[in-house]
Structure formats: structure tokens, C-alpha cells
Amino acid sequence: MVNFCVQAAVLARLITKKRQDMDKKLEKAMNEQLSKEFYSAYLYVSMAAYFESENLAGFSHWMKMQAQEELLHAMKFFDFLNERSSKVILEAIDKPPYKFLSIDDVFKANLKHEQGVTGRINNLYATAQKVNDNATAIFLQWFINEQIEEEKNPVDILTKLKYVKDQPAGILILDKELAARPQPVLGPTAGNAA
Predict the structure, then answer these.
(1) Residue 15 is assigned to a structural domain of this protein
(2) CATH at residue 51
(3) Which residues contact 188 (CB under 8 A, 6 or more apart)?
(4) 3-class SS of residue 179
């Protein structure tokens, strides 16, 4: 009977024990990144709308898939913050640009945006290391690796556009290629099985 009471007391402490608190500065920055991921999706939907207005359904499809991927990224932050018993705070999302001059202009904006995301993720990682939050640092490692692809994609498309220049046949071939982009599927991250 004593053993059962001890086990029950230990279990009760485990159930009611609050998870490790996240540093407040880091928690605020993680929430800001969550909102920035939603903004990224919003931006890519705006870019997709531009391509729709130009009758480039394949380019539009590629940006829609990019927007879906950004929503998945946002939900990874959402889930991780909740797993850490942090307060999730959703901020207002800024209006994205919607006027673009050309296909090149869109992908240059795409690249610049992703370079900004890379900088923010790197800063989050540095903050996590500074406050010795290993769980968050490990979580962010997935995003650090992901940003390599996120910057490579627009660079690759810009390179192809450079070769095609303004040749309509080349643009249409690239449009068809981009239309084949599959739905995004993200593998698990440390501390987040999505």
C-alpha cells in the first residue's frame, strides 16, 4: 500500500509539474517568427495572384505550394510553443506587396524574403544557445537546414529565367515545369512529429 501511495504521489507531481519555462525574450522572438511564417504564406499567395493575372498557372501553382509550405512551418512553431507550455500570441499580418514588374521581379523578391527569414532563424538559434535552451536550438536546426532549400529554389528559377530571357516558348516550358511541384510534406523535427 505504501508503494502505491509513493507511486501515486510521484505521478501526481509529474502531471502537475509545469514544463520547462522558455526564456521570455526567446518566447517573444519565437512568437514573432510564428507570425512571420504566416506573413510568408500571405506573401506567396500575393505572388500567386500576380501570376494568375499574367495567365501563368504553373508559376501560380508553384507559389501556392510555397504558401502551403509556409503554413506548415508556422504550425511547427505553433505546436512547439504549445509543447513547451509557452503562450502563443498571434500578431497582425502585414499587407504583402501585390504589384510586381515581371517574373524576375517576383523571384528576386522571393529570394530577398527568404534571405531575411534565414537571418531571423539564425538569430533565434543564437538566442536559444545564449540562454542555453537546447530543446529550442535543436528544433531550430531543422529550419536552418530548410532555409538552404528555401534560398536555392528562387536562385534556380532566376537562373533558368536568365537563360530563357523573354522568349515566350521558354517561359511556357518553365511554367509547365513549375506546375508539377507537388504538395509540401514536411518530415518530423526534433520535439515535433509533424
Answers:
(1) no
(2) 1.20.1260.10
(3) 194
(4) coil
